[in-house]
Amino acid sequence: MVLRRDGVVAVGGPQGLAAADATTRESRLHPRGSGSRDLMRSYLDFEKPVAELEAKLEELRQLEANGEGVSIADEIARLEVKAADALKALYGALTPWQKTLVARHPQRPHFVDYCAGLVTDFTPLAGDRAFGEDEAIVAGFGRFKGEPVCVLGQEKGSTTETRIKHNFGMARPEGYRKAVRLMELADRFELPVLSFVDTAGAYPGIEAEERGQAEAIARSTEACLALGSPNVAVVIGEGGSGGAIAIATANKVLMLEHAIYSVISPEGAASILWRDSGRAQDAATNMKITAQDLHKLGVIDGIVPEPVGGAHRDRDAVIAATGEAIAAALSDLHNMGPDQIRDQRADKFLAIGRKV
């Protein structure tokens, strides 16, 4: 068991790390394995008790597989129950800060995983027809449960190479203008729009500001509101500020159970309020950034349950659950005309905060 600099505990030595990197790749764009067990599993700091139990379990399983020593099946079964109970208790009482860490987990499934699992015949389109391509937002057309849809998603990347390629999911103006271009195409052909949100925020670099970052975010938000076809947004990890709302202004906004959605990161809020980013835990608690808090406040419309231990524990299960939640949301909007779609969306956002 190794504690890395990013605060993640990893079970396995250098060979395990290399094997995990080799098996972590992107979807149709880069298909990534999505079983419940990986070659190496990473643990967050607060998961250390579970990490120790599961490390011991792996040692016992290896001994049993090698036929060494007396039968230890009973001990393995006892430890499996103990580890499962510990994980369930831990995830049954997560603090907002711990949920923030889970939302940022390095092995959490990203947009490309959801796209590969839920969308068939996906054809990505590139460029904003004004400046260039931004791979922080992956967008295109495909079929969801056999029906044609437009799909947008912020992709963080899962390896050093892909994180740099996708700029850690932080889009530049051309990314949002690409999203606008595809939403306008979808509206023209009356196709539903599915958005997958996972970003710490829009890219804050000087060149992005020079190219009109704020205006691009506003235009993308406007394009969402103007759609005559239904749109559904799912916050699958982090939903950060305008970088998220630009593609999440939807008829139905869903969140994964351990995702977060906020106007600023906890670290940023702590730096502004207390001039101390070390108080991020206090900020996270007071900002109401969890799916449970936001559902009570009427900011989101539904919560997609995650497997015990987080989405990274069983990717297939959480992707399937997300697909069912999206299908139910689209079904609710199925018989509405374009004007009704726009009115419902506008009323939803105008109502936020009125009942607080």
Q: What is the CATH first-level class name of the largest domain?
A: Alpha Beta
Number of helices: 15
Largest sheet: 8 strands, mixed
- Assign an overall shape: globular
CATH topology of the largest domain: 2-enoyl-CoA Hydratase, Chain A, domain 1
Task: Give a summary of the structure in a few sentences.
This protein has 356 residues and is an alpha/beta fold. It contains 15 helices and eleven strands.
Present the secondary structure layout:
Blueprint: E1 2-3, E2 8-10, H1 14-23, E3 42-44, H2 48-65, H3 73-91, H4 96-103, H5 111-118, E4 119-125, E5 137-144, E6 147-154, H6 160-165, H7 173-188, E7 193-199, H8 206-210, H9 213-226, E8 231-240, H10 241-248, E9 252-256, E10 260-262, H11 266-273, H12 280-287, H13 291-297, E11 302-304, H14 315-332, H15 338-351
Parallel strand pairs: 6-7, 7-8, 8-9, 8-10, 9-11
Antiparallel strand pairs: 1-2, 2-3, 4-5, 5-6
Structure write-up:
- It is a single chain.
- The chain is an alpha/beta fold.
- It has two domains: 2-94, no CATH class; 103-351, Alpha-Beta Complex (2-enoyl-CoA Hydratase, Chain A, domain 1), CATH 3.90.226.10.
- Helix content is 47%, strand content 17%.
- The strands form two sheets. Strands 4, 5, 6, 7, 8, 9, 10 and 11 form an eight-stranded mixed β-sheet that branches. A three-stranded antiparallel β-sheet has the order 1-2-3, with helices on one face.
- Helix 5 (111-118) packs across helix 14, helix 7 packs parallel to helix 9 (213-226) and helix 9 (213-226) runs parallel beside helix 10.
- It is globular.
